[in-house]
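I'll show a record.
***
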Amino acid sequence: MKQLLFSLFVLLTATGCVTSKKSAAIPIIDTHIHLYDTTRPEGVPWPPKTDKVLYKPILTEHFDKVSEENGVNATVIVEASKWIPDNQWVLDLVKHDRDRYIGLVGSLEIGTPDFKGHLLKFSKDKRYVGIRMRERPGGDQFFNSELVWSDLGLLADMDQTLDVLMFQFSLEDVDMVAKRLPKLKILINHVAGANIEGKTADPEWVSAVKNVAKNKNVYCKISGLFQQSNRQPSPKDVSFYQSELDVLWSNFGADRLIYGSNWPVTMRGGTYAEYLTIVKSFFADKPRTAQKKYFYQNALKFYGLPPLKR
């Protein structure tokens, strides 16, 4: 009888009906962390000294520990400084561990005469995968600048990506850019700017998400959940975030959702483990193929990164 049960277990494992503990571990790429050193002689432009949680050195040794404790295999850093030299500073900071720190989303000012030169320089390093659009010089006139469109077009032509921080931009802005530049790969940060209140998602936001998600070159990070809850400490039950997460899942699906934490900003709301538990809980009832895509495969595809080595 024991032999029969063992044979049945082996058969089920081989056919994928049962997975071993080893195969159950899905790799994780965190596509949204920040690194900086507040002790540098020149200081940092962000975070401000008044931020009692974040104003301290946040370096590789700190995220190494987080990674090892939470099973994070690799990360894409998002530059939080507006100072151009800091793009190279981060690349140099993490060059000792290219298997863990596999990419950098840089910070360059779109629509400036020096943009092209900076992009050409930094993108010589294959870890430089694109930039984040977060500032909006000129306000409502930003997209009236031909130089802005020239720079965005250059990103597309070079197969560099565009992360979008929603504070200065709208989903309507993203839709406009996506339609005008269908070759440009766009990744909306922080759950598409949702204000999460633990109740039914805002209908206007839902409508905007449905519209922008029709563009197949637009992806979305399920990142910054704690930040978007506008609560410190942040709720730790997935049900609080369920409505907005369901909307993103319904519209972007398995192929265009990407994991990110927004560490160390997550520390304002809770621990990294608590954050990761929420997104794992949301994806627990999704197919294993979808979990793989969300936690690492979509990130590799979007940013054009080589296979994981860890």
In short: The radius of gyration is 20 Å. Strands lie at 29-33, 74-78, 101-106, 128-133, 161-164, 186-188, 218-222, 257-259.
